[in-house]
Amino acid sequence: MSKAPVTVIGLGPMGARMAAVFLENGRPTTVWNRTASKAAPLAERGATLAATPADALAASELIVISQTDYKAMYDSLGGETHALKGRVLANLSSGSPDELRRAGEWASGHGAELLTGGIMVPPPAIGTPGSYVFYSGHEATLDRHRETLRELGDPTFVGMDAGLSMLYYQAQLYLFWSTLTAYMHGLALLGTAGVSAERFHPFVIRSMATLAEDGPAGYVRAITDDVVSGRSRGDDNTLLMQAIGADHIVEASREAGLDTEGPAALRDLFWRAVDRGHGDEGLSSVIEVIRAPAR
User: Keyword Repressor, does the record have it (predicted)?
Assistant: First the structure.
């Protein structure tokens, strides 16, 4: 049996890779991009180049969108709303959760269904083992196109709220970026004393393993348990002690001539939690400040 066709709109690094993956899997693929020349390499590999957005929408029930933002979707399809009826728009572009919710209303207002998504790998890893995508919208709609979307990565349904997939996506990105940025700050700090990145690397791997361990000794597990239970355990390592330690990191960075804004932001967050009475509790009590920042 032939595979169901798919249309890809937006041929930046992500979209071009998605279209290539569909072609590699033998799936009939139509592409459209505002800069048509970007479609040429895919056309050479067998993709059908749509002349207009309306042609792109007409070619498939499932439309995978990968553009800079949601405004680009409106710019591309806003003049072709008559062609949206009966289409499923799987938009993997970035935006704010409320923006995605409004996009869901816009799509349904024109007879289309919107699946919002966040793809959790860089372009080269799309379609490889371990790739996964958060989706929200109607689960039955995702199920209807699961076979196609699985070619990009494991389709992970998170709920009907159109903004939820982006919340998952942004939570993961913030964890990823902040962790790697902290690592770079550590490299820079040690580098001022002549310590190489390779020398520091194995200690970072050891710390990461302890963070991720899914057992009593794992820090992420401990924070999760505290948040679920609503109890923050200070024990022998109170938040006050950690706030004082954060002061020292800022001072060490200043002495080394490094940028201090990242460590200072973390220090200030700790001290705000201490000032609100959480000094005798554990690190997990910082979530109370994150949840209810000072106005």
Answer: no
* pTM (predicted TM-score): 0.92
User: In this structure, which topology does domain 6-167 adopt according to CATH?
Assistant: Rossmann fold (3.40.50)
CATH number of 213-291: 1.10.1040.10
What is the per-residue pLDDT across 206-239, written as a single tens digit (0 to 9) for each? Answer: 999 999 998 888 999 999 999 999 999 888 899 9
